Recover the amino acids of this structure.
């Protein structure tokens, strides 16, 4: 077997829909927005069905959020970290989060940069896991569905017309999506200052 034929076999295995689904799932753990956009583009190109791409993305996003909760459950056990926190402030934050769990868990899904601290705090403060899991399941399903199928419906109209240069558009889409997230975060910060 020559080196070239081995490379062709590797390329064929990467293009298998289940392999692409696994890569999309794992990609959500690294950069969720880029994974969603990649899934949309792969689906629009016909390399993976939109249903399989969506399912992989949803499972990755949902399990990643549950992982943040799990990480939070470990934090109180790391005693050397406790000296860096004001325990009264931590208690106050715990009470606040427990009172506003539903709104906070759902709202955090759309604000960039807040999932890590908030979902980890939910685990750290011992908020009910089953309730958290249902909220995160719902938020992940709605958010991922809205973004994925919204972009897919737009992308499928134009994707075939872009020719061989279409994959160079991926970084442009990712940067644009990140900029939109950044603007939402700024808008929220301005609202918080006014309140």
């Amino acid at each position: 077997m020559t080196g070239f034929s081995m490379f062709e076999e590797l390329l064929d295995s990467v293009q298998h829909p289940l392999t692409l689904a696994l890569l999309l799932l794992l990609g959500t753990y690294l950069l969720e927005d880029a994974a969603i956009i990649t899934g949309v583009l792969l689906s629009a190109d016909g390399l993976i069905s939109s249903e399989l791409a969506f399912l992989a993305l949803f499972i990755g996003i949902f399990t990643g959020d549950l992982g943040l909760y799990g990480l939070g459950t470990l934090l109180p056990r790391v005693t050397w970290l406790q000296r860096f926190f004001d325990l009264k402030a931590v208690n106050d934050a715990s009470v606040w989060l427990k009172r506003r769990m539903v709104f906070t868990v759902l709202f955090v899904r759309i604000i960039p940069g807040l999932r890590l601290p908030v979902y980890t705090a939910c685990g750290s403060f011992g908020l009910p896991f089953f309730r958290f899991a249902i909220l995160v399941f719902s938020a992940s399903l709605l958010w991922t569905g809205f973004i994925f199928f919204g972009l897919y419906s737009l992308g499928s109209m134009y994707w075939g017309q872009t020719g061989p240069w279409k994959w160079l558009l991926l970084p442009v889409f990712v940067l644009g999506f990140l900029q939109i997230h950044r603007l939402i975060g700024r808008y929220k910060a301005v609202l918080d200052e006014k309140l």
In short: The longest helix spans residues 129-158. The chain has one domain: 26-158+166-194.
